[in-house]
Specification:
- With 274 residues, the protein is α/β, with parallel strands linked by helices.
- It has a single domain, classed as Metallo-dependent phosphatases (Purple Acid Phosphatase, chain A, domain 2, 4-Layer Sandwich).
- Helices cover 22% and strands 24% of the residues.
- It has a 6-stranded mixed sheet.
- The chain starts with a strand and ends in a 19-residue tail after the last strand.
């Protein structure tokens, strides 16, 4: 079982850049190309929010066109840049998005693993929230199968990462309750998120929490206490989560941009006349 985890696409209307600088439509198309070029191809794709930059219908129409190129199931959850009602209206036929009448969240059985997508959006806020209803829903879903390895995905990270302007808008409400729920369910093998536009890992509630880098622009790595941040164009990437019975869930970073190579590993003695 191979899961591709992409995040923070920030799709714009045709011809417009995000922040007047990031050509996110082109960058997302390039990421789709990279997923399609994988051998073996992923069994499914998970995208953890900020699917669009402003939650506009035109942005979701662009996103739907891009994702239609992927032949495998695509599982979506919203981020703070999304508008839940437009997402569900235009991409409501995507798996799970119509399961909940109030939120865009779902649970699915992928065979060897389960995957749960949580909606942490607070309309009008950059920060995330898990209210009592969403926490109860998660507890119920995790209680349905306490044996099968499970991935929990949400947009907002639930831990402090040290990039202060991002920590101010992480999962601010329901963090302690989420931690308690995950601790009660040791079958959770990963907590996956986006939002921070950088690859970051931490232990959370006794399991591994991973933030995937954006497939578009990245947040500058700055561990000083600054009120606001900046972005750059460090190499775009996504995560690949490989499940095998022998090793369990193993996570890799895959870069979108093609690098020079591949080249064979040859010793000097392998060259004639060396």
């Amino acid at each position: 079982m191979l899961i591709a985890h992409l995040t923070d696409l920030h799709i714009r209307p045709h011809g417009l850049a995000a922040y007047r600088t990031a050509e996110t439509n082109m960058l997302t198309e390039r990421a789709v190309d990279a997923v399609l070029a994988l051998d073996p191809r992923p069994d499914c794709v998970l995208i953890t929010g900020d699917l669009t930059d402003n939650g506009l219908p035109a942005e979701y129409e662009n996103l739907k066109r891009m994702l239609s190129r992927l032949p495998m199931p695509v599982w979506l959850i919203p981020g703070n840049h999304d508008r839940r009602e437009n997402l569900k209206s235009i991409l409501g036929d995507y798996p799970g998005l119509s399961d909940d009448p109030h939120f865009a969240q779902w649970a699915t059985d992928l065979g060897p693993v389960r995957m749960i997508g949580l909606d942490t959006v607070v309309p009008g806020s950059g920060a995330g929230r898990l209210c009592a209803d969403r926490l109860a829903w998660l507890e119920a879903r995790l209680s349905e199968d306490t044996a099968k390895p499970t991935i929990v995905a949400l947009h907002h990270p639930a831990f402090v990462c040290g990039i202060h302007h991002m920590d101010r808008i992480n999962l601010l409400e329901g963090k302690a309750e989420l931690e308690a729920i995950i601790r009660r369910h040791p079958q959770v093998v990963r907590v996956l998120s986006g939002h921070h536009h950088r690859p970051i890992q931490a232990l959370f509630a006794g399991t591994l929490a991973m933030v995937a880098p954006s497939v578009a622009h990245q947040v500058v790595l700055d561990l000083n206490d600054k009120p606001s941040g900046q972005f750059n164009f460090e190499p775009a990437a996504f995560h690949l989560h490989l499940w095998t019975e022998a090793a369990g869930l193993v996570s890799h970073t895959a870069y979108v941009e093609k690098a020079p190579g591949p080249y064979p590993f040859l010793r000097d003695a392998d060259y004639p006349g060396a």
